[in-house]
Amino acid sequence: MTGRRLALTGVATTGIALAGALVLAGCGGSDSPGSSGTGLSVGASYMPQPVSADMAAGFLTITNKGGTKDELTSVTSDSAGEVTMHETNGGAMDEVNSFEVPAHGQLVFKSGGNHLMFEKLKRRPKQGDTITLKLKFAESGPLTVEMPVKSATYNPSTGH
What we know:
The chain has 160 residues and is mostly beta strands. It has one helix at 10-20; strands at residues 5-6, 34-35, 40-48, 55-64, 70-76, 80-89, 92-96, 99-101, 105-109, 115-121, 130-137, 143-150. Helix content is 7%, strand content 48%. Strands 1, 2, 3, 4, 5, 6, 7, 8, 9, 10, 11 and 12 form a 12-stranded mixed β-sheet that branches. The termini are far apart.
């Protein structure tokens, strides 16, 4: 599935429409930051309340304060049958197997760019719920993140 190109129709349109409803200039919002103890931390995580019963988008920022790059290799959640990572290129989503987290830098998942897709939802999350994720990395230990579900039109006021 690496590099699988999805046209913005059908199921992909639902995910992008949901993500596109949120125009983000940056990262912000309230969440429970995770930290691996190795320089990686997660902040500004949230899921807009999904408009689809079986799919949702997710956004967050991974900060690497360490001097060595790392790589996000997978994301899992008990709330979904599958969580995939995507980047948006020229109006299409590309599913990818990993993302680099640069040394002394950030990996940002935001509307219109890198994002998570929660597929085969086990139940439809509602505003006020919290979704638990596990992020796995090539070098660092896993991070557990509590991602709050916000309104479908949530737009963080500060951040990335």
